[in-house]
Automatic annotation (TrEMBL):
The keyword Lipid metabolism does not apply. The lineage of its organism: Bacteria, Pseudomonadati, Thermodesulfobacteriota, Desulfobacteria, Desulfobacterales. The keyword Transcription applies. Residues 126-153 form a coiled coil. It holds the Pfam family PAS. NCBIfam families: sensory_box. It comes from the Bacteria. Residues 160-390 form the Sigma-54 factor interaction domain. SUPFAM superfamilies: Homeodomain-like, P-loop containing nucleoside triphosphate hydrolases, PYP-like sensor domain (PAS domain). This is Sigma-54 dependent transcriptional regulator.
């Protein structure tokens, strides 16, 4: 294209660039954008006057230099090696974001030169383009991170342990739900494993290769919940991300959205949720574009929605829209034979994680675990086992190794939802156990057990007094009284 002044370079490149030298020189020098040409080693043999003016360099002195000596962050030599064009790359040059094209020039499949075009003549326009590209890159990164998290479902039906009659029946109902896309409402006490069923249904359905999007309606402040669910556009509110943010319904397209703790959904949000369920379309906050999303909805709650409807705190129309496939997860105390099954499986997993091999549970400890009423359900069982392993001496869990409120608790009747049968074939929901004899007075044992139960409930609920009181089955005011009685920090 151009014959430079440097004779050594001229001799090397003249065969290819000899023709129409003057024409190319005049044409490139008339460009307002920057142009630079290097040979296959990255040596500069042409740079136009606009680029030199932008760089504040003497053009004649740049000939024969390596491109990195002339332009900061130059990649012309890299393109020469790879032979791959770089189109619309953003490059910072002298503190200005520029848009750069780097095109390899080939002959017989071999790179003999690299042509570079730098767009900087209208800095404002380039700045706008750069900001737009930055925003797009940010969005792509955000989507990638979100989708990695969304697809990280861990549980299948094989993950759900339980041989009791209630659990077998429940798993069959959940398995049927994988064959359709109707909404599912999973109810059950806190810690029973409602999300396991939600993930298992997703993994068992045709949507398993698409996102499983989870949102806890109780964990997000009321004023942020709408933006989390529906997303927002740029400038929707103070502190909004520059490029906006997609909402959970948008991210769940073709997959499953799991609304955990749906009973805690603010009343004013419920009509909006109902509309999305019925129309499968919505707008981002601050946006006007109608977004369509094909999602399957699964909701879960530990609250009694029927009571809430009577109280006017949960919409009847939303309830009937959600409650197409109802699944009720039984509490652990009603899964008698499953308690020890779960304890053994969890112990194996937890002991392996703690690098403690061959840990077993003694018969007395098994009796204590089986007869405890487990107000915190499986989550409490995990906590008890972790707590026991953390201070265990030896390889066998004895009754005395369990938390005080369990090992000093008199045996209670074992409620078993799988209906253990006696010799006459009748259901035996409660089995009388021999009560432990203890040298301490009954009142002392009662107080210690009560104190330990309060501590345990607060631990399991992250010191949330309302949830702890609900777990214990008492009013929050009563919980405060007991905390004061046992000198626990309020």
């Amino acid at each position: 294209m151009i014959i430079p002044q440097d004779t050594s370079i001229t001799q090397r490149e003249t065969p290819f660039f000899k023709e129409d030298v003057a024409l190319y020189h005049d044409m490139f020098d008339s460009f307002k954008n920057g142009i630079i040409i290097t040979d296959a080693e990255g040596i500069v043999f042409y740079i136009n006057s606009s680029y030199c003016k932008f760089l504040d360099l003497d053009r004649d002195k740049q000939m024969g230099k390596h491109c990195q000596e002339v332009v900061e962050n130059s990649r012309m030599h890299i393109v020469a090696k790879t032979g791959k064009a770089e189109v619309n790359h953003i490059q910072d040059i002298k503190g200005v974001k520029t848009v750069v094209q780097r095109i390899p020039v080939k002959r017989d499949g071999k790179v003999i030169a690299v042509f570079g075009l730098v767009m900087f003549s209208d800095v404002r326009e380039v700045g706008k383009l750069a900001r737009k590209i930055d925003s797009l890159e940010y969005k792509v990164k955000l989507y990638e991170e979100e989708l990695l998290n969304l697809r990280a479902t861990r549980y299948t039906f094989e993950s759900i342990l339980g041989e009791s009659e209630g659990m077998r029946s429940l798993k069959m109902e959940a398995l049927r739900a994988t064959a359709n896309t109707y909404p599912v409402l999973i109810t059950g006490e806190s810690g029973t494993g409602k999300e396991l069923f939600a993930q298992a249904i997703h993994q068992g359905s045709d949507r398993k290769i698409y996102p499983f999007v989870r949102i806890n309606c109780a964990a997000i402040p009321k004023d942020l919940l709408e933006s989390e669910l529906f997303g927002y556009d740029k400038g929707a509110f103070t502190g909004a991300r520059p490029g906006g943010k997609p909402g959970k319904f948008e991210l769940a397209h073709r997959g499953t959205i799991f609304l955990d703790e749906i009973g805690d959904m603010p009343l004013e949000m419920q009509p909006k949720i109902l509309r999305v369920l019925e129309e499968k379309e919505f707008e981002r906050i601050g946006g006007s574009k109608l977004i369509t999303s094909d999602f399957r909805l699964i909701a879960a709650t530990n609250r009694h929605l029927e009571d809430m409807m009577e109280e006017g705190t949960f919409r009847t129309d939303l309830f009937y829209r959600l409650n197409v496939i109802p699944l009720s997860v039984p509490p652990l105390r009603e899964r008698g034979s499953d308690i020890l099954l779960l304890a053994e499986a969890l112990l194996k997993k937890l002991s392996e994680e703690a690098d403690m091999q061959g840990i077993r549970i003694s018969q007395h400890a098994r009796n204590a675990l089986a007869s405890y009423h487990w107000p915190g359900n499986v989550r409490e069982l995990v906590n008890v086992l972790e707590r026991t392993l953390s201070r265990l001496d030896g390889d066998t869990i004895q009754r005395s190794d369990l938390p005080f409120y369990i090992h000093n608790r008199p045996h209670k009747a074992l409620r078993d939802g799988d209906a253990q049968l006696n010799t006459n074939g009748t259901k035996q929901r409660e089995m009388d156990k021999n009560r432990d004899r203890n040298v301490q007075g009954l009142r002392s044992i009662q107080m210690e057990s009560e104190k330990e139960a309060v501590i345990q409930a607060l631990d399991l609920c992250g010191n949330n007094k309302s949830k702890a009181a609900k777990m214990l089955g008492i009013h929050r005011t009563m919980l405060y009284r007991k905390m004061k009685k046992y000198h626990l920090e309020l």
